[in-house]
Specification:
By secondary structure, the chain is an all-alpha fold. It has one domain. It has 5 helices and no strands. The longest helix is centred in the middle third of the chain and has 47 residues.
Length: 96
């Protein structure tokens, strides 16, 4: 307190910086918009990866069903039994 009284006439020098200097954006709204955009891109990328993985699993499952159907067909299994076991249509089995 005494220090304040002794220096009450002294000028206080403060370096003020702009929002752009501090955060790299002109306004806080610009910073929030950039953050929301980055979040949206991350969510979109995660969804894309999940969809791609799901499609890969489905495609892999379909390939396995076709392989199994072809093997059963070559072993002389009746087509209606193969369709029941694999879930493939008769046309899909005959196309193998």
């Amino acid at each position: 307190m005494d220090h304040f009284k002794k220096n009450s006439n002294a000028l206080v020098h403060m370096d003020l910086i702009t929002t752009k200097e501090a955060y790299g954006y002109e306004t806080i709204a610009d910073a929030e918009l950039a953050e929301a955009k980055a979040l949206g891109e991350a969510i979109g990328e995660a969804r894309g990866v999940a969809i791609g993985e799901a499609r890969g699993v489905i495609a892999g499952g379909l390939a396995e069903k076709r392989r199994m159907a072809k093997t059963l067909l070559l072993q002389g299994m009746q087509i209606h039994i193969i369709t029941t076991v694999t879930g493939l249509s008769e046309a899909e089995i005959l196309a193998l």
